[in-house]
Amino acid sequence: MKFQSAEAISAVDLEPPGCAVLVVGCGNLLRGDDGVGPVLVRHLWELGVPDGAQMVDGGTAGMDTAFRMRGAQRVVIVDAAATGAAPGTVYRVPGEEFAELPPLHGLHTHSFRWDHAIAFARWALGDACPTDITVFLIEVLSVDYGAELSEPVTAAMNTVIDVVERDFLAPLRPAKAAEVTVEFTADGYLRLDAALAASRFASDAVAAIVQDDDFLLIPLRGPRSGGLLLKQRNPAGDRSALVHEVLYGRIPVGVQRAYWDDERGALRVPLEVTT
Asked: Coiled coil where (predicted)?
């Protein structure tokens, strides 16, 4: 058996990989609305994680959250709140407001939550602690064991998802071109290049329909929405889906121009009228 020398071991980089945006969902999935943070992270996974972002189910392990922050440029923490406000109320709070609260004196792992994590990270990580930290808190209705998310908390969660996508994740996604090209194959596959797939169809879940003389490819929120899945067809990240049943013999074989239709929220490919 061979062992590494002390010099070789010391040369190993033990630092976690940095990222542009770290999203951490905290809470207990077993206790109704208290699980809103981890549930939100699962929805963000389904929407597609852009390069440079990391999504973490922080559960109830606040100390893990603290060390996860190392190397991140921006951090988003999402958790439930119980302040007595109306269920579904959303608070957006700059992380520096929690930097000194609660006090760390006498803290132990069983009582360590995300609000301790910010103060602990500033102490433990020093200059490596991110300075751009945003906390979203969602007021709960019920934290009963085994319960699903309540309606007001679900609605609030979707609002936070939209804000996180707009303010933190969208800048990491490829630019959205209004005019692109797609390819149809004779055996009924639609092919998209990696940039188009990542910018418009990051969740890989789509609906395909023919409307009048247009083929429409509509992004869905994730695989649980149904529809077709865009499968990765090469290491470059290009995607494909089998659409021959949708086109019913009207497959426009070859490379075709496509246009993003804002009104219909879909990629539109004009089909030539055939007789």
From this structure: none
Q: Do residues 272 and 221 make contact, with C-beta atoms less than 8 angstroms apart?
A: no
Instruction: Locate all alpha helices (DSSP H) within the chain, ordered by sequence.
Output: 6-10, 36-47, 62-68, 114-125, 151-164, 194-200, 244-247
Global pTM reads: 0.77
Q: In this structure, what token pair is assigned to residue 234?
A: 């090469």
Question: For residue 188, what is the DSSP state?
Answer: S
Cis upstream peptide for 102 (omega within 30°): yes
Q: CA-to-CA distance for 157 and 53, rounded, in angstroms?
A: 19
Main-chain dihedrals φ then ψ at residue 242, nearest 5 degrees: -85, 115
Distance in angstroms (rounded) separating the CA atoms of residues 208 and 263: 16
Token readout for 252 is 């426009």
The answer to whether 99 and 121 are in contact (CB under 8 A) is no
Domains and CATH numbers, the chain: 16-172 (3.40.50.1450), 179-270 (no CATH)
In the three-class reduction of DSSP (H, G, I as helix; E, B as strand; rest coil), residue 189 is classed as strand
Q: How far is CA 13 from the centre of its chain?
A: 27
- Could you read off the pLDDT of 179-188 as tens digits, one per residue? 999 999 999 9
Q: At what angle do helices 36-47 and 151-164 cross, to 10 degrees?
A: 50
Q: Report which of 105, 267, 119, 81 is spatially closest to residue 191, judged by C-alpha positions.
A: 267
Burial (CB count within 10 angstroms: exposed 0-12, middle 13-18, buried 19+), residue 233: middle
d(CA 16, CA 5): 23
